[in-house]
Amino acid sequence: MEFSTQTAPGPALDIRPLTAGFGGEIHGVDLAAGVDDATLAALRHALATYGVIFFREQRLTAEQHVAFAERWGRININRFFRAVDDHPEIAEVRKEPDQKINIGGGWHTDHSYDEVPALGSILVARELPSAGGDTLFADMATAYETLSDGLKKTLEGLRAIHSSRHVFGAASGHQAAEVVGDISDRIGNPAAATQDVSHPVVVRHPDSGRKVLYVNPGFTLHFDGWTALESHALLKYLYQHATAPERTIRFSWRNGSVAFWDNRATWHYALNDYHGERRLMHRITLEGVPLS
Ligand code: SIN
User: Fold this and answer.
1) pLDDT reading at 10 higher than 60
2) Residues 138-161, mean pLDDT to the nearest whole number
3) Looking at ligand 1, which atom is closest to the CA of residue 279?
4) Residue 171: its pLDDT value, please?
């Protein structure tokens, strides 16, 4: 379903934009109480408009987190992350005080290595460090729209290869002897990291109708039909362009915070600046639709 970003359906939400068009903090919605159809429609519109939406002061149990996610569609059961006990739908994003590597510590968009990439994720803060551990988000619609007409035209004809093998597979750094002890309790199942997939470099967002840049530093290997070496300079330029400060926002977590991002419209980056403290988040990822 494509939305007009001008006319919001359902009840008027109290949305406080973080920037002119990207990132919106929503107040006055109690996710634990469940959302009715009209509120769900308004939230869908907000997600399509802002790319990532945030909630504060929520008190969600694991069951309520699952129930809220199920209102949006099918849950993707993560094949690499450790799941929360008794809740296979919830992936743990955890870093212990004695660990140095965090999950998501680099610009990426989740699941671009899948044939049908996930819609997005709903991340709930469970335990936060005393300071640090913020998450950055980058706006892929504006990243595309602010390119020159010439480069847009070149990109429209291109596809890119995305993979999970170098991140989650047996040959990835995560499996190397020096780091395996640090990460192996959180990420596993390297045999499932088999998929390489080709996606258009520019896709039309299925809900907002905006064109978005759909390559990312985490999972994109190279342009389809180009070598990695040939792809390197242009990808590097696009990554630099996409992460310019005016196209990014920074979300500081507090107890009760929830972030819900759209993978097709955003990248994210979990900052790893809180060594010696625990950070524990619960993530539910939602199935998406084929991209074109
Ligand atoms: C992730 O990449 O899903 C983790 C984001 C975060 O922990 O802030």
Assistant:
1) yes
2) 97
3) 7
4) 62
Q: Whose CA is nearest to atom 1 of ligand 1?
A: 104
Q: What is the pLDDT of residues 14-69, one digit of tens each?
A: 999 999 899 999 999 999 999 999 999 999 999 999 999 999 999 999 999 999 99
Active-site residue among 108, 162, 199, 264?
Answer: 108
pLDDT, position 108: 95
Is pLDDT at 180 greater than 50 in this prediction?
no
- Residue 90 Cα to ligand 1 midpoint, Å, equals 13
Q: Is the CB of 283 under 6 A from ligand 1?
A: yes
Does residue 177 surpass a pLDDT of 50? no
Q: Is the CB of 93 under 6 A from ligand 1?
A: yes
* Ligand 1 lined by 270 (C-beta under 6 Å): yes
Mind spelling out the 3-state secondary structure of 25-74? EEECCCHHHCCCHHHHHHHHHHHHHHCEEEECCCCCCHHHHHHHHHCCCC
Partners of residue 142 on adjacent β-strands: none
Instruction: Tell me which of 229 and 115 has the higher pLDDT.
Output: 229
Structural domains of the chain sorted by starting position, each given as residue range(s) with its CATH number in brackets: 14-284 (3.60.130.10)
Question: Where does residue 149 rank: exposed (0-12), middle (13-18), buried (19+ CB within 10 A)?
Answer: exposed
Instruction: Answer whether 283's CB lies under 8 Å from 112's CB.
Output: no
The verdict on the CB of residue 103 being under 6 Å from ligand 1 is yes
48 contacts 3 by C-beta, under 8 angstroms: yes
Ligand 1 centre from 127 Cα, in Å?
Answer: 13
171 or 55, which is more confident? Answer: 55
Is 82 catalytic? The answer is: no
Q: Whose CA is nearest to atom 5 of ligand 1?
A: 270
Cβ 62 vs Cβ 85: under 8 Å: no
**Contact 104 CB / ligand 1 (< 6 Å):** yes
